[in-house]
Amino acid sequence: MTDPSLQPPSNLLGRWAVIGLAVAALALAFAYVAGWLTPQRLSSRGIVNALQANSGVFPGYRRNHAKGVCVSGYFEGNGAASAYSSSSVFAPGRTPVVGRFALPGGNPYAPDSSVPIRSFALRFSLPNGQQWRTGMNSMPVFPVATPQAFYDQVVATRPDPATGKPDPKRAGAFFAAHPETAAFLSWIKTAKPSASFVTETYEALNAFYFVDASGKRHPVRWKVTPEAPDDAGTGPQAGDPNYLAQDIEQRMAKGPLRWHLIVTLGEPGDPTNDATKVWPADRPTVDAGTLVIESEQPQDSGPCRDVNYDPTILPPGIEISDDPLLPARSSAYAVSYLRRTSEEAHVPGTARATSPSEHP
Amino acid sequence: MNTSNAFHPLARLLHWLMAVLILTMLFIGVGMVSTVSEKHEWLLAIHKPLGATIFVLALIRLGVRWRHPPPPLPAGMPPLMQFMAHASHWLLYGLMLALPLVGWAMLSAGGYPISLGGSLHLPPLMSANFEAFAWLRLTHRYLAYLLFLTVLGHMGAALYHGLIRRDDVLASMTFPRKPLAPAVAPVVVEVVEPPSSSIPPQV
């Protein structure tokens, strides 16, 4: 028997073609799954690029909710929610929390009065490496229900370079084509920028499931409601574009600030996949415990700086619902997190991060 | 000493199992970071435990390889081709072990919980470090691209052996031919000598 490799195989060209086709097909499939062949397909990069196109790139900052302040404290569970969720966070006892108050929008220098919405993000650090992260907003509903509609809204409300404001025709056409935005639009018509972060109620907006010890799933939405009375008139004087940070510093100097974590229990038929719809007002609620904020820190050096408040990071006992915004938030937040950390790490090819003191 | 012209059956089983898992893993990884659909969540939920599985299987496979050395490359292979074959295999092993570790370190540096599903959590490999996260995350991406390219090259080379050279290499990992004594004997002689790649091929 001779070495088979010495005999030239028949149909050499065809054999090379088979090899080339097999390798090319696998490479193409990979490129397709990566989204490289379909730039028009909605992706995490596309959403973050659209946000950047609206507000500009501020290296080192979050691509949305860029202006904010870190806070620290703890959550004291009271056991009331333990009937619905097996998570240890709801058992009586303390769980450390790193939080962040912020303004929506990608500009970290936006005046506090520029938008009537504030946000509050929390990271609960449970035992055994478990975490619960949530990002909440001071509004009753989200404007849109799907990632595609969110993207379209960002594009439709892009500021006109000439005026610095969204083109009313384009924005109007978007809202007309999206009747699900009506609840949000009617709320924002009368909403006023608050004088303080601490007087606001922050809603998780998306639905989740609590899973109890027997494995039963309960649809829920949660919010934190402040103990501080709404004293909008006593806020720092107007004309200061950064009055919210001043306000929280002054209040914190007087002692810890408290919120209650209120869990609303949904009933069969309540939408879990539509953040534009409120649940009926008569749904039962549970006061799951007290959130106590003990200190605040600037966001460029505080502990919240390094946290990606991805709302799908949940401990056993809490699960995401079928709300399509949740996976999109997770995916897009990861892109924002990688971009801003890469800028801080001075990865070649990323926008150069400057320290805040170098900014006006 | 492996005097057979084939990989040990356990090595073949591990190879094909891991081939499926690693290709699945590469497609899951590149897909989950791009998609904004509900796929993002379940792909991410598979990615982490699958990465841990691949890491453990790669260690087992190295053990099997040590216990049952692979068959020698055909004597007629040019030295450069032999070098490429050896180098690409060690690169594959290196990436199989490095990618899960970099992923684990990356999640640790980012301060993320490292959940393998349910309440099964891995401890962090390092303390949270914002800038290290960026470097590790990018390293994870580019090592994954390198692994995919190496897999493509590996597949192309295997087909080249099977279709063009028509030697025993592809068969040694698939359905080995029963060795015929006269054909095998010279090959065995070849490999007992030190670094066979430095010896001119004996035709």
Structure report:
The complex is a heterodimer of chains A (360) and B (203). Chain A has 360 residues and is α+β, with helices and mostly antiparallel strands. Chain A is built from 7 helices and 10 strands. Helices cover 26% and strands 22% of the residues of chain A. In chain A, strands 1, 2, 3, 4, 5, 6, 7, 8, 9 and 10 form a 10-stranded antiparallel beta sheet that branches. In chain A, a hairpin with a 5-residue loop joins strand 3 and strand 4. The longest helix of chain A is centred in the first third of the chain and has 23 residues, at 12-34. Chain B has a single domain, classed as Transmembrane di-heme cytochromes, Chain C (Fumarate Reductase Cytochrome B subunit, Up-down Bundle), CATH 1.20.950.20. In chain B, a hairpin with a 5-residue loop joins strand 1 and strand 2. In chain B, helix 1 (9-32) packs antiparallel against helix 2 (39-67), helix 2 crosses helix 3 (79-109) and helix 3 (79-109) packs antiparallel against helix 4. The chains are: A alpha+beta (360), B mainly alpha (203). The interface between A and B is large, with 57 and 54 residues.
Helical residue percent of chain B? 55-70%
Shape of chain B: elongated
**Number of extended strands of chain B:** 2
State the order of secondary-structure elements of chain B, H for helix, E for strand.
HHHEEHHH
Number of helical stretches of at least 4 residues of chain A: 7
Query: Biggest interface and its residues per chain?
Result: A-B, 57 and 54 residues
| CATH topology (level 3) name of chain B | Fumarate Reductase Cytochrome B subunit
CATH topology of the largest domain in chain A: Catalase HpII,  Chain A, domain 1
* Low confidence ranges of chain B: 181-203
How widely separated are the two ends of chain A? 82 Å
What's the alpha carbon Rg of chain A, rounded to whole Å? 24 Å
Please give the largest β-sheet of chain A: 10 strands, antiparallel
Query: For the record, what CATH class of the largest domain in chain A applies?
Result: Mainly Beta
- Tally of DSSP helical segments of chain B: 6
**Count of the separate structural domains of chain A:** 2
Mass-distribution shape of chain A: globular
Q: H/E element string of chain A?
A: HHEEEEHHHEEEHEEEH
- Classified by CATH, the class of chain B is Mainly Alpha
